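Researcher: Let's do a round of design. I'm pasting the structure tokens now; please hold your answer until I've finished.
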């Protein structure tokens, strides 16, 4: 789900305009804006004027300027994306309906329409639109009731609030119930102190769970209970169950054991637990552990991971397969930069990376996962994980350049070589020095060098043939040194 789908038509277009600015490094023209939004020039200008009024009312020191058919975006560097999303969403009917549903298990159409100051026909139209969006999460609204697994509802609200609530509003939300002791319980269980960022994530989930505590029952946890069977013998799960039971006993509250599984699903699917704890959990087996083992075999066979990063890879794969196992759906709010991430990868490795990404994601074996927003999000995270691991595998190739005492000739030659190698960051050029150990030497002089080090003597001062031969040698040496 794209978060702008919760917005009205005008706000969708305004949000899309701002997103387009962050997908481009240059100014945007009105022509580009109309083409990308499928709106007329007059409509775009009208929406920009309306957006600037909204920004002014929100007291944001930012605005869109139309100047000579060009669009300029003035925005302070410290303004978060959540502030913009919240500004667009907070007054929209769909968002207000969802917030009402967060607090109430069921509702009366007439009463809710009166509360929102809209007609029943308008409310029904918005409910129909919401159901189409919620279908991705396998939840919905029917005859004033929430339908679907409670775990999915909590996950949906976690996605929504984490991307739409700015810091001040999020702090107010989590303070409605004091979940700090709950956080400390998790920290003791993992024998670690969580960073503030992870505490914020955990507090948001716990606050959502606590406020919806009475909405969980046997009827809306059928799938969760079935999946929990694979983890009943897991030692970490057993310890978590005892700890949560003790926590609720302090308040004389009876809790459903599905609460433990819901918390377990969240903890294992997010970047929260220490690496050692995640390895401990996976060590007891289960469906997620099996997928991680298969994926590791594939990645090792494809030579895309560095053994020195194996713990980080296992950790990331554990999160990915936990998400695919426990959850459906994803809310996307920020512009993606896949093309920038892919550009990091050397051209000769891109096909291998793409092939491995698809093979690993197939292991998720979840219905419609491949073509879902959750699948695309997991693919993006996996791509970053593999690039991280593969780049750690790369070694630096030190190349000595010997052009005598002419710094200009040396500089020009280095620039030509960098261009020839597409500015490969792993090939370092340096003026030749007898005290330095090089992997390769390029020389214009007829002199003796260190033994056993490959040398190329320039024939025509950086001719195309010289550069082609050197480029081939350096790429081969780099692969050999990195063990690729």
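Researcher: That's everything. Go ahead.
Model: Designed sequence:
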């Amino acid at each position: 789900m794209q978060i702008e789908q919760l917005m009205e038509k005008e706000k969708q277009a305004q949000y899309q305009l701002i997103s387009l600015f962050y997908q481009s490094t240059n100014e945007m023209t009105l022509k580009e804006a109309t083409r990308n939004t499928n709106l007329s020039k007059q409509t775009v200008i009208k929406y920009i004027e309306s957006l600037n009024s909204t920004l002014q009312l929100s007291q944001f020191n930012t605005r869109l300027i139309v100047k000579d058919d060009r669009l300029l975006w003035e925005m302070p560097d410290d303004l978060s994306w959540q502030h913009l999303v919240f500004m667009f969403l907070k007054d929209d009917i769909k968002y207000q309906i969802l917030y009402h549903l967060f607090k109430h298990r069921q509702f009366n159409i007439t009463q809710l329409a009166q509360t929102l100051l809209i007609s029943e026909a308008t409310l029904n139209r918005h409910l129909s639109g919401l159901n189409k969006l919620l279908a991705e999460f396998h939840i919905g609204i029917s005859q004033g009731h929430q339908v679907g697994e409670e775990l999915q509802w909590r996950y949906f609200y976690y996605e929504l609030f984490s991307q739409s609530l700015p810091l001040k509003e999020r702090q107010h939300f989590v303070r409605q119930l004091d979940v700090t002791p709950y956080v400390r319980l998790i920290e003791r269980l993992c024998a670690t102190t969580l960073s503030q960022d992870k505490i914020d994530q955990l507090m948001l989930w716990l606050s959502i769970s606590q406020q919806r505590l009475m909405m969980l029952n046997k009827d809306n946890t059928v799938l969760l209970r079935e999946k929990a069977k694979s983890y009943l013998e897991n030692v970490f799960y057993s310890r978590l169950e005892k700890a949560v039971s003790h926590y609720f006993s302090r308040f004389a509250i009876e809790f459903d054991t599905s609460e433990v599984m819901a918390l377990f699903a969240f903890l294992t699917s997010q970047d929260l637990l220490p690496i050692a704890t995640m390895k401990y959990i996976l060590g007891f087996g289960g469906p997620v552990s099996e997928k991680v083992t298969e994926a590791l075999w594939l990645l090792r066979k494809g030579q895309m991971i560095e053994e020195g990063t194996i713990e980080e890879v296992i950790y990331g794969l554990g999160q990915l397969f936990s998400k695919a196992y426990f959850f459906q759906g994803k809310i996307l709010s920020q512009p993606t930069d896949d093309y920038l991430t892919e550009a990091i990868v050397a051209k000769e490795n891109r096909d291998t990376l793409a092939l491995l990404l698809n093979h690993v994601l197939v292991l998720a074996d979840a219905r419609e996962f491949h073509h879902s927003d959750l699948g695309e999000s997991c693919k993006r995270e996996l791509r970053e994980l593999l690039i991280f691991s593969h780049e750690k595998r790369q070694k630096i190739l030190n190349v000595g350049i010997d052009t005598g005492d002419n710094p200009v000739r040396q500089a020009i030659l280095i620039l030509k070589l960098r261009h020839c190698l597409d500015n490969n960051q792993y090939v370092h050029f340096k003026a030749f020095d007898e005290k330095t150990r090089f992997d390769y030497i390029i020389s214009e002089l007829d002199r003796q060098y260190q033994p056993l080090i490959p040398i190329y003597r320039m024939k025509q001062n950086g001719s195309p043939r010289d550069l082609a031969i050197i480029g081939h040698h350096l790429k081969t040496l780099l692969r050999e040194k990195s063990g690729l």
